[in-house]
Structures are given as structure tokens and as C-alpha cells.
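Form 7-S
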Amino acid sequence: MDPQSGLQQLRRHASHANALPLEAVPHVTVIRPLKGLEPKLYDCLSSTFRQSYPPSKFTVYLCISSRSDRAYPIALKAIHDHAHFGGEIKLFIEEEDPYLHGEHGASRNLGPNPKIRNMSRAYRSAKGDIVWLVDCNVWVEKDAAALMVDRLCGFNGVSSAANGAKPQTGRKFKFVHQLPLAVDVSADIVNDGKREKEPSDIRRRIGVQTLTTSGSLLDEMFLSTSHAKFYTAISTVAVAPCIVGKSNMFRRSHLNALTIAASSPSTPDSPASADHIGLDFFSHNICEDHLIGDLLWRKPVPPEIKTNALREGHSAQTSDLSRPTSASNQSWGNHAIVINPPCIQPLAGISIGAYTARRTRWLRVRKFTVLLATLVEPGTESLLCSLHGAFGLTTLDWCHQILGIPQTWTAFWTIWMTSIGLWMLGDVWLWSLLNGWNADGRGPPFVGSAVKRRDWLEWVSTWISREALALPIWASAVFGGVEVQWRGKTFRVGMDARVKEVYRDNETKKMI
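Output:
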């Protein structure tokens, strides 16, 4: 499968933020939490330092739980190799955070969410107002930061003036996120890193041998078909927040203002909860990405945030800010999605059990945050949706009398199979479009490699396996309890979407 073009078919303008005078470019702090040795981790981290955004306006904070984490030497190597980057680079270690450890710190100062605990110090130390949260296991294209700033700040052009270039501003957004994709790179890590070219050789040598048990391929298929359709559709029509959390950008002052207003009184479980603002506010939740986006979506923008946002793209010497502009009349969008470029997660050696466990985990959390969307999700999958359609067309008298559709089992199964076939053809086109994107050849080899590695048998087998697993995974998540495994720990999710870590000792449970 090798399409002639991918996301390049979608029009993409050059960044307007990069065309501004340096003193007018908004400062961005990128925060990347690390955990364990992810596939292609070095390439993913390196993509941060290769952004086209002005380095003096770009701060990189890497975060890790401890120096014993297997990702630690990779982080050091990435920092060392990009010492010429030009912007500030720091590596924060959670075990050395004085707020959580040491003489004046306490581990109970934050909730159990390991990702929030990892990022907390970096967030508190962020420079400027714009924060870009990027998972360590995704690769981002060099213009990603600049294009996301364009959307967040509403930059849709740059005009010349006597006192320098000025931004032509349109609608600002509260929150910007990228379309997430995944690619199975198992071929690149076998045989001591030597790349294999034949899928059959890869399957024999890696141990996942069949497509029906390859979690990496299933994840790649899910993110490029079912997930991509509904993620972009919901984000485009903007009827509700829909966030995965791989690459998100927002204003720190905005989140801080809303979390200060929403802070609850101190509780015995979290004596410092009333002081938690920003990311720390969500340390007792496990789906912090969705909850951050949901809070920004639901709440109106405070007047002081709107007033400060008027200065975005303007230098201190810009005179037109003295005009009586009404910030209260400024229209803000809730969320904006950046499809081109996407962020890409390399995957390798994931078992089918690990794939189902991850999908179950996030569905189980979602049922406490977006219950209605979780309940109707099976109806958006091909097998059940086609079943509904076939049943309706072969049962309703109108369809029989007007359309002449027989009310027989033969007609039922014929319609169902036809619907499945058309659904698959649509997914073939979408998968080829998304995975044909290759960053104009400027990215690492795994970017855009899926279309060259997948043959038809491989693709069809993976697609059928993914579709067949969708309903059992959903049922297990919705009806299978309230405990989830994440980052090597067990959590119990409450009705308020808050989590408590569960400790097991000789089959005895103790929660904190």
C-alpha cells in the first residue's frame, strides 16, 4: 500500500508567529514527562530541539521521576547532543522536587497521579505564558510549535507597519491540540537495531508473529482509522471537548485562574488541595488531559486573561495597543485541532494483551468523565453500526414497500457484509491519507513508513482484528470494575473522577 500523497493534500500555511519581530513572539515552554524506555525515544526528544520556533523564545523542560529511570541516560544524551539548541534546557527530577521531598516537602502535597507529580515542578517553573505539554513518546514536526501558537493566539497573517511587522489577529482559542497517530516500528528494533524490510521476517523474529496478536499494529490501525475519524469530527464541529493528550497547548495564566476559582477546601486526603492551581489541581485525577481541556472548554475566559491576550504578538514598543480595544467583546474559540502536522507515536513489540489493557484503562476512566459518549461508542464501530443498519433496512415496512428490500436473513447478511466492505474501503483511504504523511522527507525514517511496510493481507487482518476487539474491550471497561493499571501502579477511580492509589500486600488492599 503506497499512496501518492498523504496529509500534504491538506493545505498548510507557513507559520505567522515565526514572521513576527523576535521581541513580539510569544514565549513557549514545552514540558515533556518521561517514563521508561519508549521506542525511538531519542528521536522523539530530539524533535523538540529541532523546532523552527525562535530558540530564545522556546524553553524545553524534560521531567523524569528518578535518576534510576531507564529513560534518564537517553534524556541526558538528547540534552548533550543539542547543547547548541540556543534556548534554555532543564531536566527536572521528581525525587528532587523540594515541594514533594526534603526537609520542607511532603509526598502528600500532591495527589497520586504520577504524570502530574512528574511535571509539577516544570510547570511551576515555566517561562512565559504559553505551555506546550508533549508526551515523551511522540515525534513532532519542526513547525508544530509555531503552527499551534498561530491557532492559540489567532495569528492569521502579518502586516507591515512603520514600527515593524504586526500580527493580523483572528479568533483566539483556549486550547490547541494535535491529531495523534501511531506507527509500528518493530522492524527497526530487531537484530540490534538493523532494519528489516520484509513483514514476514519481522513477524518471525519479533515474537508477535501474527497480525491478530500484534498490539502495535492494532494501535496503529485504531489511531489512523476509527479514532481519527471521530476525533477530528468532534473537534471540528466543536460540540464537546475531545482530547487525547499527546500534544496540547494552552495559556498557563488561563488554567491557573480557573483552577484558583475552582479550588475546593482542604480535605484530610490532601491538606494542600486548596493551594493547588494549574496542573497540580488535577493531581487526584488520572485523565488530566481531558479534564484540563474540559475545564477550559466549559468556563468563560476571565476578563484579565482576555486583556493580557491582546498583547500576544506585540512588542512592548507597539503603539496600537493603546487603542481602546474591548477585550470583553473578543470572540474566543474553545478548542482547535492541528491535523497537519500530526504528532506521531512509534510503537514496538506491544502484545495484544497490552493493547486491550490500555484501551480498557482509558475507556474505564472515560465512563466517569463523559458517560454518554462512552455508552454510545459501540454504535460508532463498524460491526454494530452495520448490524443496526441491516436490521432496520430489512425490518421496516417502508424499506420493503418503497425500496423493495426483502425482509429475509439473506438480505440482512448481504446488507451487513456490504456495509462492512464499504466501511473498510473508507478506512483504507483514510489510513493511506494519514500514514502517507512524511514531513517532506525531513523526519526520521519511521515517519511515513507504514504505507511502505504494510501489504494487503497484513492490513486487512489487522483491520478485522481491531474491529472484532472493539466491543469486547468496551464491555470489559464499562462492566469490569473501577480499577486501572497505569505507569506500574494500580488506581481506583471514584464517581467524581478522582483516583486513589491501591496497594496490595498479601491480598490486602490499602488506599491512600
